[in-house]
């Protein structure tokens, strides 16, 4: 035994390194899971390591200021600096290629709007409420005018951490904005005094009946118990995954989240693509009216836009009956999510400008645009983008990821893994502990205030008092516009032959079906 111990202790450090490397090499060669490691023992590991840290290397060292997506360094920097009330100016002039595709120009007036001494903007340079009252046309019992044109978009407790939701709620309270709950129900962290828009989707979390459907009784109770709920949003779809329903990974389902949502701890929660409470457009209108009637609150819908037939049906019903949603939130295909398959996030539904333009035109042609409050979301959390959105007909802006960044999100893009390093989109207690809700709520509020201040200044530069006065002619964009994008049949000059299809069950029952082994 002594000889063995002596032998071991006489091995020099460099021989230890060689022994470890030989062991790793043998293990690499024996294993068959990773071909690269097998074919290139030891060296192959560097490839996996570099691949893993590639996004960070690019983000911090390689990518240029305007290169990254969803938000480039300049955009993120502007949000961080605005949230911290630091200098968010640029020196020496723009570093953007202002001739690039989709670049936005705001036509300034020869002389800007003059703020008189007694004007509200003389004392509060950040005061910018919504120009329309939600629920006014439909004479809801509790109409609501948002105190801020920029607000926090739907993001659930579950997808976001408790500390993040608390920071957002306290932040909107300071900024006079509203906080959309997202799909996960109303949590204690939404109850710090900010205005709340209660949002639900096909999972009906927070207003869920025993059979998984919608419970009007719970809805009424919820509104009665929580007077800070100012409006209700029914989610039909969202830009990142229309028609997909929702996914909350099991890793993020803590006992508290399970209780609020009425689901099981640790198991993936899938909200189905379809609503149980209605199955066609007339039923949707009845559903909206029933909720508005029982709660007294304005009720709206959120959707990503693609085909317009059902929207036209909705508009026709609204004209005929005088009923319908008080607001419509249009989410762009570029919108964010806690988790979605890339095939959906990248390809299903139109980008905001196209989707919103199509929808607005349709409602305008039926003379409905005045009675609806239009809310836009999809990377609109920057003053120039907001000016464009208002010129197109938006009345308010909802921001999700921009709000996350203002409270510390670093765009690690791991919301779906429960490992968010900033603690914003994780249920991991250790990671959340880095968030100080008091400080972060001030950051959110400051981002909103700086945003509104710059938005007001741009509005004044264009000769207006409120951004609702922006007209289409006030904004120019370098295009490729929607009229130049063509459907595939026009591009390639043929229509495909219709594939006979009789339902998935028929395919499943087919005797030739493969993949069963
Ligand atoms: C982490 C996260 C969670 C989200 N959860 C919801 C949700 O529960 N319901 C919903 O309709 N949209 C949800 N969204 C979409 C946002 O509300 C918003 O529509 C979209 O991200 C576009 O806004 P943005 O570009 O400002 O992020 C979520 C987005 C993120 C990033």
From TrEMBL:
Keyword Transmembrane helix: yes
InterPro entries according to UniProt: Aldolase_TIM, GltB, Glu_synthdom
SUPFAM superfamilies associated with the record: FMN-linked oxidoreductases (SSF51395)
Top-rank taxon: Bacteria
Family note: Belongs to the glutamate synthase family.
Entry-linked Pfam families: Glu_synthase
Keywords: Membrane, Transmembrane, Transmembrane helix
Taxonomic source organism: Olleya marilimosa
Coiled coil: none
Name the record gives this protein: FMN-binding glutamate synthase family protein
Transmembrane segments: 12-30
Organism taxonomic ancestry: Bacteria, Pseudomonadati, Bacteroidota, Flavobacteriia, Flavobacteriales
Residue span(s) of domain Glutamate synthase: 144-464
């Amino acid at each position: 035994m002594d000889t063995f111990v002596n032998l071991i202790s006489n091995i020099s450090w460099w021989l230890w390194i060689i022994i470890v490397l030989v062991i790793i090499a043998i293990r690499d060669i024996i294993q068959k899971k990773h071909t690269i490691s097998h074919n290139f023992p030891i060296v192959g590991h560097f490839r996996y390591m570099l691949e893993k840290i590639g996004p960070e290397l690019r983000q911090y060292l390689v990518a240029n200021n305007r290169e990254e997506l969803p938000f480039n360094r300049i955009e993120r920097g502007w949000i961080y600096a605005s949230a911290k009330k630091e200098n968010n100016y640029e020196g020496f002039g723009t570093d953007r290629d202002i001739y690039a595709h989709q670049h936005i120009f705001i036509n300034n007036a020869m002389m800007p709007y003059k703020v008189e001494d007694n004007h509200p903007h003389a004392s509060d340079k950040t005061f910018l409420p919504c120009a329309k009252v939600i629920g006014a046309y439909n004479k809801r019992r509790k109409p609501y005018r948002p105190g801020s044109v920029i607000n926090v978009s739907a993001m659930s407790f579950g997808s976001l951490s408790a500390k993040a939701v608390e920071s957002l709620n306290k932040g909107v309270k300071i900024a006079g904005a509203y906080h959309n709950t997202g799909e996960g129900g109303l949590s204690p962290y939404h109850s710090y005094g900010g205005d709340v828009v209660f949002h639900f989707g096909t999972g009906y979390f927070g207003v869920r009946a025993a059979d998984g459907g919608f419970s009007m009784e719970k809805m009424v109770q919820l509104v009665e118990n929580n007077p800070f709920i100012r409006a209700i949003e029914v989610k039909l779809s969202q830009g990142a995954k229309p028609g997909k329903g929702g996914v909350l990974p099991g890793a993020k389902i803590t006992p508290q989240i399970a209780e609020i949502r009425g689901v099981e701890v640790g198991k993936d929660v899938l909200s189905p693509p379809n609503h149980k409470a209605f199955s066609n457009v007339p039923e949707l209108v009845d559903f909206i009216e029933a909720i508005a009637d029982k709660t007294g609150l304005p009720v709206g819908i959120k959707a990503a836009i693609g085909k317009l037939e059902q929207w036209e049906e909705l508009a026709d019903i609204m004209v005929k009956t005088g009923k319908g949603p008080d607001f419509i939130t249009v989410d762009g295909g570029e919108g964010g999510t806690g988790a979605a398959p890339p095939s959906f996030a990248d390809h299903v539904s139109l980008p905001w400008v196209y989707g919103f333009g199509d929808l607005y035109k349709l409602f305008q042609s039926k003379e409905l645009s005045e009675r609806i409050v239009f809310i836009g979301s999809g990377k609109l959390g920057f003053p120039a983008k907001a000016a464009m959105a208002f010129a197109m007909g938006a009345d308010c802006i909802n921001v999700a990821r921009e709000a996350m960044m203002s409270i510390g999100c670093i765009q690690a893009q791991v919301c779906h893994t429960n490992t968010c390093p900033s603690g914003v989109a994780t249920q991991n207690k250790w990671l959340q502990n880095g968030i100080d809700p008091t400080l972060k709520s001030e950051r959110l509020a400051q981002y909103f205030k700086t945003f509104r201040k710059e938005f007001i200044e741009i509005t004044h530069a264009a000769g207006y008092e409120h951004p609702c006065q922006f007209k289409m002619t006030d904004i120019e964009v370098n295009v490729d516009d929607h009229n130049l994008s063509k459907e595939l049949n026009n591009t390639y000059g043929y229509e495909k032959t219709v594939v006979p299809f009789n339902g998935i069950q028929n395919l499943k029952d087919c005797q030739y079906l493969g993949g069963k082994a």
